Amino acid sequence: MKTKQLKQFFKATALAIALSSSMPTFAQTSDEVVAVVDNSVILRSDLQQNVAEAKHQLEAQKRPVPPEQYLEQQALEQLILRQTQLEQVKRYNIKADEKSLNEAVLKVANQSGITSLEAFQQKLDKMAPGTYESLRKRIAEDLAITRLRQQIVMSRIKISDQDVANFLKTPQGQAALGSQVHVIHARIAGNSNIEGVAKQVRTALDSSNDIAAISKQFSTNSVKVEGADMGFRNLSEIPAELAARVTPLQVGQTSELITARDGIHVIKLLERKGSEQKAIIPQYQTRHILIQTSEVVSPDSAKQMINSIYNRLKAGEDFAVLAATFSNDSGSARDGGSLGWVSPGMMVPQFEEQMKSTPVGQISQPFQTQFGWHILQVTETRQQDMTQEYQERMARQILGERQFDAELDSWLREIRNNAFVEIKDPNLDRKNNKTS
């Protein structure tokens, strides 16, 4: 198995592997450190477990198992890379919320036919005490790593307005938006002189839309001209090489000759229309006050402060004045706490839930998010046509996803190179053992 393939395999190793009763759980009685990564260590038992999981998966997929030393080296490298990410998770204080964690654990349970967390815990701990908690911890770490990757990697991806505009003009962009085109399509095939006939067909299409008459006029015993009015079609339904030629055409314009295996194609664009589906969404004109914990503000103090501000608001004091005076969100505090018009998906779930459930003009109860304690007020709501913004956001998402894997690999190499790593066992150090 090639190195790249094995790396991909290790990345894809499923957590559900822990469910298999045939998987050994290694005792910790005589453990040893095989590697030091920054402020953490990787134990021999960690490595043995990872190698066993990899073997189990490879055998289940009927794929060849590499030599033991090579497998151990690759497994250790993946553990090191995982630990470097967990060090970053600690640095940025990223944690999986309880709801997401329970859902992720339950999903693993469902894969083994178990429908409740309680039954799942009983099954795993019956296999070996502490197995459930170990799996739950691992899933929590994976969720945190995923959040870390999304935050860090997406912040490194730069997509300009021009990139978005250019993408929306491409067949892929138009197809993503559900754009439709009404085209006439002609194909010229034969044994000789098809290019000369194709040029004549193209000239005829410049001044006529009667493709049936044009096909009949230019078809001969040696050259066949087939044509049809294709009606409205989604660009995604048109072969990519033809869709690429349609996109830049103006209405009424005929394409250049398109050479393909089955002949020469000519396309004329008659009409174009975008998706008729509009993105009409609710928006909330919202303002808030944020109190964060800090080195000088304890969690209890922050809660007391937000409750005090809430009582003052209920007593009739001005929201904008209190926001400007006390809010730790400096960006909105300067504007009396105003966040402007807020669309669904812009805020963290807890904030959005409060925003949607608070009647216009009323003040929410104090509530907590990952950013601190909030009080919000919705001053107005509206239904807004966000079709263009939606299309641009979709384009940015598609472009971001295209760049994500490459940027992720770059970031992983950076944090791996910047991490302090000491491999205790010389046989596991790939620098000393070049195995292909």
Query: Which H/E pattern describes the elements?
Result: HEEHHHHHHHEHHEHEEEHHHEHEEHE
Give the CATH superfamily of the largest domain: Porin chaperone SurA, peptide-binding domain
- Supply the number of structural domains: 3
> Main β-sheet, in a few words?
4 strands, antiparallel
Q: In DSSP terms, counting alpha (H) and pi (I) runs of 4 or more, how many helices?
A: 16
Number of strands: 11
Biggest sheet: strand arrangement: 4-3-6-5
Structural class: alpha+beta
Rg on CA atoms, Å: 31 Å
Gross CATH architecture of the largest domain: Orthogonal Bundle
Share of helix, binned: 40-55%
Catalytic activity: [protein]-peptidylproline (omega=180) = [protein]-peptidylproline (omega=0)
GO biological process, one term: Gram-negative-bacterium-type cell outer membrane assembly
Signal peptide: 1-27
EC number: 5.2.1.8
